[in-house]
Amino acid sequence: MTLNTVSSEKVKNKTVLLKVDFNVPLKKIGEEITIAEDTRIKITIPTIQLLVENNCKVVILSHAGRPKGRVVESLRLQPMADRLAKLMNRPVETCKELTGAVAQAKIAAMQPGTILVLENTRFDPRETVNDPNLAKELASYADVFVNESFSTAHRNHASVSGVAKILPAYAGIAFQNEHKMLTKLMSNQKRPFVAVIGGAKISGKIETIRTLTKIADVVLVGGGIAHNFIKAQGIDICNSYLEACDPKEKHGRSSSYVEIALDLMNENKIEKMLLNGYIPLPKIIYPSDVIAAKDTSDTVGKHIVSLTKNNNGTLEKDTMFLDIGPKTRRLYRDIILQAGTVFWNGPMGVFEAEGFAEGTLAVATAIAKTTANTTIGGGDTLNAISQLGLEGRFDHVSASGGAALALLTGAKLPGLEVLFT
């Protein structure tokens, strides 16, 4: 199969429906809502520039947040359009409607080489159920469809896969690069391949961890995800965050993520020798110490906890594990610096809170320093490197989050499959 890709010949002088992901973190300063981190906007610029230079009318579709089919004023796309205009140094028009007479009139009035951002696609309840009527109405606006939103390629939504089945459909420049990078990551790694998986929730990453144990040499876990592996070893995690399994989901014989974590560790007990240092390592490594406190505001009371069964019953019940500890930071750093390939998704702790970002900083700086082929991804990871001032220090920055993780597990992505011939 071949991925259909955008080119000047395919779009010249046409009206183009461009799918992007402007679901970026926002912050409120006074009464003004501004962009906190804009990687997902920046990666669309080469494709938008290509379209503008080829005299296209560029009609942009994006979602923001989870408005659940209703209009939420704080999730309108005006701040994203304003940031795009600033980054491109050219006007970007907006429309407060997605469909209907107002949207149609705005598009009809466009001149070649101009850009229009339609309203949040998820304000329309038909979007997330891939309603064919919404797909047809959106498709009627344009001659061709270009997808520059790999991050939503795992969604079977009207503006993702629905429109692509109606119009001639092509992958944008960043979309192509993302697909190429992830395909290479799955099949052609320079060894050792070190995967670092963090974040709060394990539900969206458990299958990725399972897959990574098959293709990576070692998987380092941190954040709330690590609590499942720690508890699976019989160690008390006190009041630390632990995600509960959805009872509707099927997990084989396992009824909780802790049991799934234990299964994964039992399946991957074989120790491997890492290059250079000749350190024998299990396939999955969880923290051996953590930074703990009563809550994220308790910077005075934060302390190091060595994770052993001997701690059971000795820690205060309101103790929370909020970051990886210094011993774990040193081990993770040493492993990363020996890597040939590194894939990182998710912070090591509550990096947003003052006093609990050291673990994430240690991992980030080690990945930035290594000579390995480095790929980082996920919204929280991008926020972390922005907050830590480490932008531009990695070989590939993926803004795709869940879609990238889904592809790594071998899942079929509706928004990707429809672009193949």
Offer a few descriptive terms:
six-stranded parallel sheet; Rossmann fold; 16 helices; 2 domains; alpha/beta; 421 residues
Walkthrough of the structure:
- The chain has 421 residues and is α/β, with parallel strands linked by helices.
- The protein folds into two domains: 167 residues, Rossmann fold; 228 residues, Rossmann fold (3-Layer(aba) Sandwich), CATH 3.40.50.
- It is 33% helix and 17% strand.
- It contains 16 helices and 19 strands.
- Strands 5-6-4-1-7-8 form a six-stranded parallel β-sheet.
- Helix 14 links the parallel strand 18 and strand 19.
- Helix 10 crosses helix 11 and helix 12 packs parallel to helix 13.
- The N and C termini lie close together (6 Å).
- The model has no long low-confidence stretch (mean pLDDT 91).
Give a quick precis of the structure.
With 421 residues, this protein is an alpha/beta fold.
- Rg, Å, rounded: 23 Å
Share of β-strand residues: 15-25%
Number of domains: 2
At CATH level 2, the architecture of the largest domain is 3-Layer(aba) Sandwich
CATH level-four homologous superfamily name of the largest domain: Phosphoglycerate kinase, N-terminal domain
Structural class: alpha/beta
Helix percentage: 25-40%
Report the major sheet. 6 strands, parallel
Question: How far is the N terminus from the C terminus?
Answer: 6 Å
* Physical arrangement of strands within the biggest beta sheet: 5-6-4-1-7-8
Could you tell me the number of beta strands? 19
Number of helices: 16
Shape: elongated
Q: What is the overall pLDDT average?
A: 91
CATH topology of the largest domain: Rossmann fold
Unreliable residue stretches = none
Q: Given this structure, which CATH class of the largest domain is correct?
A: Alpha Beta
Assembly state: single chain
